Amino acid sequence: MIEKAPDTRAGPSPARRAWDALGAMLDGPLTGLAPWIVLAVVEGPGRLAWAAGIALSLSVLFVAVDLLRGRSLKLLGVIDVVFFAALLAVHFLLDQAGQDWMETWVGEIANITLVVIAVGSMLARMPFTIQYAREEVDEQYWRTPRFLRINYVITGVWAVAFLVAAIAGFYGDAVLHDSENLWTGWVIQTAAMLIALQFSAWYPEDPRPPVSALLAPLAVWLIPVGILILTDDGGPGWVGYTFIAVGVAAQAFLRKGE
């Protein structure tokens, strides 16, 4: 038996693997939206400065890492840095009354800003998702009708999601006078974002998967909503149990149909 010489070729170093993993995480428009999600999660009474500071730090980090990786400078990434830097500066320039007002309406301000970014990018014939898509698709496809249509549709879906979130937040703050309302402050806004996120992964596939593949992951979301309704007094108990039951049944049915 001939003994094989040991393979002395070294694999990627841990640092290189970590860098590649970070790069994979940063590919896609969700990176540009991550600071806005952080703002929505962290902000609250007395926490706006912290939320804006963390969001700004993430925005700068994402832009710097993209440039270090040789990626193009993204419109959304630049807007992230400018918006959160301005938000942080304005917060410290306002008096207490102004800061209280900002803390109340910052969610709506952020969501309307995102609507303007999405719609404005489409009007400028540069939907904000297209810069991310170009780095994942060969250049020969960049000007094809299908590639352009996909990015316009996905950007449009995100614009609708941001608008729904803004309207829900406004209703909770201006009509219900309850920024902590479970439905307007969390359920509806989160649902809009999750639908847009899932649609962004499902729509570009070729051939396009069945609609059940789009809906099945969303059905899972009904279960934690039901649990929250039961634990956070978000409605009658039967509503919470119905959400849980429908979520379990819908997921099983949709997964079976895939």
From TrEMBL:
Keywords, alphabetical: Membrane, Transmembrane, Transmembrane helix
Transmembrane spans: 21-42, 48-68, 75-93, 105-124, 150-171, 183-204, 211-231, 237-254
Protein name: Uncharacterized protein
